Structures are given as C-alpha cells and as structure tokens.
C-alpha cells in the first residue's frame, strides 16, 4: 500500500460526487456543486447511485453462493458504505479474500475500515488507477491466488474511461491473467434514454478536466465479448436478479439509466 497523496479539492472527483449522491459526508464543496448541477440535468442522480449499490449487493450475493467465488478484485472502490463488498462476500463465505483498488487518496484514509476482515479471510487495499492494469494485477497477486477464480468488479467506473484511453483493452488486460471460472462484474451509465442530458453531463465533466463516456447497451455488451453471461445477461441495473433482494424503489415510469451484467470467463 502506498502512502496517501494530498487530496485535490480544486476539482470534483467521481468517487466523492457519488458519495454525495449516497448521502455521505466524505466530499467537498466542489463535489457538492457538481452533484447539484448534475441533478439539474437529471434529478435521479441519487437513485442511480442507490440502484448501482443495490446491484453490487445482489451480484456479490450471487457470486458468493451460486457462483462459488472466494476471491474478489474490486477496482474503483470509492468511499465505503455498509455493507461493503467484503462484508457481503465474507457473509457468504468467511474465508473470502478481497482486494480493493482506487486512485482517490480519500479512499485510502478509509482503508482501516475496509481492512476489517473476518479472521478466516483477508481484505487488502491498493492505491492505483484502472489505467495501470499490470500494476494492479501484480499487487493483487500478493493477496489473491491468481491460479484460482477471481471476481473482477468495475462498478460505475468504465464510463469514466474513454474509448481513446482504451476502455475495452483495459478490461481485457485485467481479465487475461485471471483463470477460467473467473467473473467480470460491470455496471455503467447510459445515454440511451436521454441523449441530451447525457451530452450535457459529458460537457460538464470535460469542463472540469474529467471524462464521461456514457455508452449504449450494445457498446456496454461489448465488454463481455468472449465471456459467458449469467442470466439475465445485460440488463438495466435495477432489473438484474431482483429475486436476490436489495431492490431500490424508484419513482416515475422512466428507467434508471444504467446497465449491468455478470459474466464468466470460459
């Protein structure tokens, strides 16, 4: 684990904006300002965050039971909320090993909370950027047995990585070292239902030196190419396996604009 870098409060960070949407306190005025401007484009920002979080709960519950997964590599962890991934994984199987990765130093300050593992399992934290896949895999390999299946999760992360930055290639570079039987778990914002708001949000991010690459259902599905999708396949995040609980009631008739999926490496 590297030492904490200074926290840059001069521009918003997606993890802290997400924290504000979830009602957290680990954000700064610059993050709150951007979150409120995003709400003017789509008032369901908090709903999107809650739906995404609920999808993570259901996916990990499935992975730890039906999927039989005992190792997890979570990239773009964000500021923790309870229950977090390791708590869900270790509730299903106390011996589960979890490595969290994020590039925001404020997340590192919460590492002590993240590292509270069960006695039988292990929880670790790596400060790194998703654009450094080899470094992430090398660090994760010190905690995880990369000869055994791993669930690789990138939740609400890839829409911050453009095609020009090699979003699809990054996923493959992270998956390639993992053995057959591993899983890829993704969620992703989309502009399929309101292109104008999506374009305005992208421009807002660009003005702040950030990337926002909302993708269509077809573009999102491409991340799973060559993998075996778990039922129901690519779906709205709110609709993925509601039988597993943690479903967020969302007012109105419009779908929450985010896709999700879980797939197995063959």
Description of the structure:
The chain is α/β, with parallel strands linked by helices and 266 residues long. It has a single domain, classed as Vaccinia Virus protein VP39 (Rossmann fold, 3-Layer(aba) Sandwich), CATH 3.40.50.150. The chain is 35% helix and 15% strand. The chain is built from ten helices and eight strands. Strands 1, 2, 3, 4, 5, 6, 7 and 8 form an eight-stranded mixed beta sheet that branches. Strand 1, helix 4 and strand 2 form a beta-alpha-beta unit. Helix 1 crosses helix 2 and helix 3 packs parallel to helix 4. The chain is globular. The model has no long low-confidence stretch (mean pLDDT 92).
Radius of gyration: 17 Å
Number of domains: 1
CATH architecture descriptor text: 3-Layer(aba) Sandwich
Major sheet: size, sense and barrel closure? 8 strands, mixed
Query: Distance between termini?
Result: 32 Å
Shape: globular
Strand fraction: 15-25%
Summing up helix and strand content along with how strands pair, one would put the structural category as: alpha/beta
How many helices? The count is: 10
Average of pLDDT? 92
CATH topology: Rossmann fold
- The helix fraction, in percent, is 25-40%
Low-confidence blocks of residues: none
The count of DSSP E runs of length 2 or more, i.e. the number of strands, is 8
CATH superfamily: Vaccinia Virus protein VP39
* Assigned CATH class: Alpha Beta
Helix and strand pattern: HHHEHEHHEHEHEHHEEE
Short description:
With 266 residues, the protein is α/β, with parallel strands linked by helices.
């Amino acid at each position: 684990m590297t030492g904490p870098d200074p926290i840059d409060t001069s521009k918003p960070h997606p993890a802290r904006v997400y924290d504000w949407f979830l009602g957290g306190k680990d954000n700064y005025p610059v993050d709150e300002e951007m979150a409120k401007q995003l709400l003017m484009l789509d008032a369901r920002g908090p709903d999107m965050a809650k739906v995404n979080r609920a999808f993570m709960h259901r996916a990990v519950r499935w992975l730890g039971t039906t999927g039989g997964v005992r190792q997890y590599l979570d990239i773009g962890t964000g500021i923790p909320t309870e229950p977090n991934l390791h708590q869900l994984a270790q509730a299903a199987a106390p011996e589960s090993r979890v490595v969290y990765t994020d590039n925001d130093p404020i997340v590192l300050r919460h590492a002590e909370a993240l590292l509270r593992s069960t006695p039988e399992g292990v929880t670790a934290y790596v400060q790194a950027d998703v654009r450094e896949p080899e470094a992430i895999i090398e660090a994760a390999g010190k905690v995880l047995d990369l000869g055994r299946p791993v669930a690789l999760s990138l939740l609400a992360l890839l829409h911050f990585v453009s095609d020009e930055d090699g979003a699809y290639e990054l996923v493959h570079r992270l998956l390639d070292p993992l053995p057959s039987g591993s899983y890829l778990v993704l969620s992703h914002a989309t502009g399929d239902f309101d292109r104008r708001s999506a374009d305005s949000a992208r421009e807002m991010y660009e003005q702040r030196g950030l990337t926002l690459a909302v993708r269509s259902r077809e573009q999102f599905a491409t991340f799973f190419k060559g993998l075996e999708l778990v039922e129901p396949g690519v779906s709205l995040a709110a609709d993925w396996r509601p039988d597993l609980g943690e479903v967020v009631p969302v007012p109105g008739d419009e779908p929450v604009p985010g896709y999700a999926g879980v797939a197995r490496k063959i």
